Amino acid sequence: MKKKNGINKVICSAIVLLVIDICLFIIKICFKTENVPNKFSGIELLFDIMLLLFGAIGFLLLFSVWGVALITAFKKGLHNIRYSDDKLWEEIDVYKHRWIENGEYYKKMTRVINCFYQKNGKVDKLVKEKSVDRLFLRLDFLNAQMEFEDDLKSAIQSLVISVVSSVIYGLITKNEFSQALIVIIEIISVIAFFLIVIVFYSWRGKFGSYDYLINEYEKKLLLKKIAKLNKVLRVALKNEETLKAQQIVIDALIEKCKKAKKEDQDGIEKDIHIVESLQLDVKHKNKLYVRKVQVGKDKIKLYYRKERENSCYNFDLLINDEYKKMYKILEKYEWL
Predict the structure, then answer these.
(1) What is the mean pLDDT of the chain?
(2) What secondary structure, in 3-state letters, does the chain show?
(3) For 289-317, what is each residue's pLDDT tens digit?
(4) CA–CA dist 334, 336 (Å, integer)
(5) Residue 312, phi then psi, degrees to nearest 5
(6) Which residues have C-beta within 8 Å of that of residue 218, sequence separation ≥ 6?
(7) Distance of alpha carbon 289 from alpha carbon 308, whole angstroms
(8) Beta carbons within 8 Å of 285's beta carbon, 6+ residues apart
């Protein structure tokens, strides 16, 4: 946050300097005369110096911010290709450190992946914890690694082809060749383009590595775990009402967060995450007390156990801990 504020201050300073520079330039144009008296020549020189100075500093600040942003984006992109930023997944990736790639390395990686993805293994713990974000993180990381190699190959081919095309075009247009020689150059260019495409197949695998096949194998196992989690998260049509209630509260909190002061936004954001994590599905609703609560323009329902008469609004009789968490948030923002 502090870094972002610092960048914003630099951008604002650059804009202010450039605006001042434009104003000075307008003043100079408006008051410029063909014959400036000698006693005002120093003022005109000062104006020119200020114009150059403010303009140079303003553009330098802007270009420095853009340069830093570009370098930061490059470093972040390179980091995201190499690291998944998760302790569990890094436990797998550490086994990829090797001196050379051979059959033993690939067998080792297959055993490692099978160990982590086995039934009741470490990845299954994520499924039980419903950590869908961590599973998606790994899937995105594997996709990025495999796509990067393809993108790099395409970029190299495009660059070399464009350079060769420019050279050939320059030779033909700047020199008076005979028609036969032009045909020969065109044939050579076609062969060159074909060689540029085919040269990447001189290696086995991608750039001499079968790592992409290891990644594809892990991806298949990972997709099975995600499919398993999706079954757990499947909601019956009769429980769609609880999803809508959850979203109503989230939307109301988002609106409050937009209007809140900066120092209060962190607390509201935490409450939003709490509501997002709630599992509000309820069975046998006809056997429960129902309390309707107005949240913004909509209403949601709270469910209580039927233990004795007139007990439907007793906090301790809320159907489960998830609804108790919801109750506390509703109470906090005076929706009860």
Answers:
(1) 81
(2) CHHHHHHHHHHHHHHHHHHHHHHHHHHHHHHCCCCCCHHHHHHHHHHHHHHHHHHHHHHHHHHHHHHHHHHHHHHHHHHHHHCCCCHHHHHHHHHHCCCCCCHHHHHHHHHHHHHHHCCCCHHHHHHHCCCHHHHHHHHHHHHHHHHHHHHHHHHHHHHHHHHHHHHHHHHHHHCCCCHHHHHHHHHHHHHHHHHHHHHHHHCCCECCECHHHHHHHHHHHHHHHHHHHHHHCCCCHHHHHHHHHHHHHHHHHHHHHHHCCHHHHHHHHHHHHHHHHCCCCCCCHHHEEEEEEEECCEEEEEEEECCCCCCCCCHHHECCHHHHHHHHHHHHCCCC
(3) 889 999 988 999 999 888 766 556 788 88
(4) 5
(5) -70, -20
(6) 92, 113, 117, 142
(7) 11
(8) 303
User: Are 278 and 265 in contact, with CB atoms under 8 Å apart?
Assistant: no
Average pLDDT (168-181) is: 69
Residue with tokens 């197949």: 201
Q: Which residues of 113-126 are buried (b: 16+ CB within 10 A; e: fewer)?
A: beebbeeeeebbeb
**Res 2 pLDDT > 50:** no
Q: 286, 282, 200: which is closest to 243 by C-alpha?
A: 282
- The pLDDT tens digits of the residues spanning 201-245 come to 777 777 778 888 999 999 999 999 999 988 877 765 567 788 899
Q: Which residue type occupies 167?
A: V
Q: How far apart are CA 122 and CA 86, in angstroms?
A: 13
Please report where in the chains the tokens 């553009």 appear, as a residue: 59
> Taking residues 115-126, what's their average pLDDT?
92
Q: Considering only the C-alpha atoms of the chain, give the largest distance between any 2 of them, rounded to a whole number of Å.
A: 105
Residue with tokens 């809140």: 260
What residues contact residue 281 under an 8 Å CB cut-off, 6+ apart? Answer: 235, 236, 239, 242
pLDDT at 262 (0 to 100): 82
Residue 281 sits at the vertex; the CA angle it makes with 321 and 303, to the nearest 5 degrees, is: 60
